[in-house]
Write a structure and sequence with these properties.
about 80 residues, mainly alpha, 4 helices, elongated, HSP9_HSP12
Amino acid sequence: MSDTGRQSLTDKATAALKPDSEKSTTQHFGDKLKGKSDSAASTLQPESEKSTTQRIGDAFSSNSNNDQPSLTQKAKNAMGMGDKH
C-alpha cells in the first residue's frame, strides 16, 4: 500500500524491470512523469508521516528527505506560522 500521492513500490519495480526497448514512447513519458511526481511528493512529506514501506522505497530510490521538515512546514516556519521546535 502506498501513501497518498505516492507511487507504490510494485509500480516502481514494474517500471524499472521492464526493458526500455519494450516500452512505448507513452510509457517512457509516463514513467518519467510518475518518477518526478513521486520524488516531489517524497520531498513534501515529512519522514515522520511516511509509512515504513515508503521510507524503505525512498531509501532505495534516493527520495529520502533525511527527516527534514516538509517544504510547506519550512515556509510556515519562515513566516512565523510554524512550530517553534
